């Protein structure tokens, strides 16, 4: 598991021994969680309210897509 980035209300974590499409976990300070596909940037599971709280994390995932993919692949060979 790698706690990859922290910003304001949320942080991104990438786990090892995962399955499915490459994704990150976005965890919020209030306990809300979402799993987001790295390339497609769609929510695979979870939820946060209001949804606009997810916008900054999605922008970060878009900006750092390759780094997140590299780390996901390193942890999930």
In short:
The protein is α+β, with helices and mostly antiparallel strands.
List keywords for this structure.
five-stranded antiparallel beta sheet; 77 residues; single chain
The strand count comes to 5
Query: From the alpha-carbon coordinates, what is the Rg to the nearest angstrom?
Result: 11 Å
Mean pLDDT: 92
- How can the largest sheet be summarized? 5 strands, antiparallel
Spatial shape = globular
Total domain count: 1
Sequence of secondary-structure elements: EEEEEHH
Assembly state: single chain
- Helix content percent band: 25-40%
Q: What class, by secondary structure content?
A: alpha+beta
- What gap, in angstroms, lies between the N and C termini? 13 Å
The largest beta-sheet arranges its strands as: 1-2-3-4-5
Q: How does this structure look, described?
A:
The chain has 77 residues and is an alpha+beta fold. It has one domain (2-75). Helix content is 26%, strand content 35%. It is built from two helices and five strands. A five-stranded antiparallel β-sheet has the order 1-2-3-4-5, with helices on one face. Strand 4 (33-37) and strand 5 (43-47) form a beta hairpin.
